[in-house]
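ok trying again, last paste got cut off:
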Amino acid sequence: MIDRKKYNYIAWRSRAIFMTYSALMGGFPINSDTRFWNTNGSSFVLTFFEEGREQHYAVSDADAEAFLKQVLQHCGPDNGIDGIDQFVIPNADGPGAVASVTISARHYPFDDPGLLKKWMDELRPKCTGPMDPRDFYHYTNPVPEPMKGDVIVETIVEQAVVPPQPPALPVPPPDNCRSSLYFEGGKPVLKLYCSGKYYTYDLPGPLLPEVNAAAAQLIAHPADGYHVHWEPEAWITVRGRVEQFIVEPEGVLKLFEKLAAKCMESNEGAQPLPGRIGYRSTSDCAPGVQGWPGSMSMMFQMNSEAAKQYAAGKDPQGAGNDAKAAGNDAQAAVQNAQAAGQPDKPWVCPMCGTSNTGKFCINCGSLRP
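nice, full thing came through this time. structure:
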């Protein structure tokens, strides 16, 4: 029987695609694996990476169990070892595909990536999808079971949903403008974001029953947890439960405003708040947001150009090395992004002599000069 609480990750990876995307984006957090997986006790998902984006499919428990059994029989049930994911590389010195199999938090060797990809392609028509982003979020983040008994708060958080920070992006990461209630050394603390600054208050113990009662009301009316970047989000964690209860951000901010007023009354010399609490717009997310979305767009543009080559079946040989060199050259990357949208003209690759029209060489993967 399937145990959703255990970690499962079965992946087929094109080495050329993975290396190119990683090099061009400087470690940009895009998972280009074709994969069968689950996490956080969620249902199983089959994900394909195509044309520069992920396509997620819902897998029934029956199909998931059959697929896991099929993979496990090929690997050998007794060949599992504890440890992190490992990719089996049949041809370490050249292009090709690799495979990784982790079932119930145990890694298994899989020596035929092509066979694994074939099984995933056969599983795909049996699945439901592709799911849109909202459906995918709810499928992989089921609503927690209702609370029973008293609510004892551990944390309350309101913040902005910010995109992941590319490791090589030469700007400071944006602030998520988090306002929160948490415990430090057993004592409750209120840390609030307001008008570009953070204000911290010691929360008087007698206020905790009020906090718990307000949290219970918020949890009783859960919010939709799906958000796009730069929208506010809020959640509550409580004693005895591991899940996050997604709640309305405005409800949390109103609670924080009441608590802040009472903290200032009881904390002598506490600094008053100069305005409204919480994240309001992208301009709040200093210092990195100014100019960041443009840089993000440039990288996504480059991402999509590479994906078009692969989607057309033009998997570059040794693309990783050329792409890495191009990714390290910021000037070349900027020029390439600026050229996007201009009509493609024929050009000859200086690395291998192949004639091309796109932004990448169809033979070796080199960036257009």
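cool. Residues 153-284 form one domain. The two ends are 55 Å apart (CA to CA).
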